[in-house]
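seq as requested:
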Amino acid sequence: MINTAFYEKIVELDPALHRKLRLDTTYCNFEFARHYTTVPLSCAEFARAAHEYPVVFIRDKEQLLQPVVLLGVKEAENLYVNAAGLWDAAYLPVFIGHYPFVMEGGADLSGVRIDEQCVALNYETGELLIDEEGVIQPRLHEELQFLHDYRRELADTRRFIEQLDELFVPARFAEEDGQTVQLDGIYLIDQEKLQKIADERLPALFHSGALRLIYLHLASLDNVLRLLNKAATRAAEKEFKLSVIKKFQLQDASNLRKPEPSAPMRRVKPGDEPDSQDQRKQEVLRKLAEEKHRLAREHMERYARGAEEAAASVPMADVEFSIEPVVEPGVEP
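struct tokens:
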């Protein structure tokens, strides 16, 4: 279940070939780490990482033990990368935070490597790493110094583990319901073996800082329950989303069904009797039309008769007209 190599295309950084190379972190999320269950850890990170992750151990290709943070409980699972590609924890392991620079390698500055497939690397935007003259810029100098320091920390981590190799056992975790979960390829320090260490070894473990790292590791195992709960929550959310999607798919399918053809309209043939409701309606309309014509005819007849009677009842009088001259005072006619 262990897979830490999330680099896609590792190339050696060459000032002559990578002139004007830039790093734009605004384009880089954590999708590159979505399917990786463990991430390497240095001793310097134990205290911060132990607050949020189980700090456990795996064996590398040379069968040497190395500390890692456990990010999932099954193959190709990282429960700390959310749906938006963001990291869902307060502390970000150095190995991930300094991507696309390859954190593994020797303790010198030669042979700096990058993941050429990283979307944050480009030649247009972001912080300049190498200028057009092939000169390394301050941003890359800072990264080189950090890589140098980090590789020394990894070497110190190796020496710490070498002191305790006989204390490690395959991991088995007990859940709240009493079930035991065994994660293949994961190792823990066995507390019973730790208690049996000879007294004369304890001062050396204390002064080297190894004893403190042992107890940080053991304390971090309380986070396994948190990890299992995150896995259960993620599985429940996925199941709920699938049920919602299925529900909408069924609704869409029902909406897209071809409607059943309606019965064709029946043409009324001559002689077919309309139903009783249509017959009553037609009868009422016919009576209303007849009544309307009757009232109009009666009104016109009454108007005509009234006009004739009015003309006959007015007598014609003979009117005589006379015109008398107007006589002005003092003027004889």
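The helical segments are 46-49, 94-97, 138-162, 191-195, 202-208, 210-220, 223-255, 276-312.
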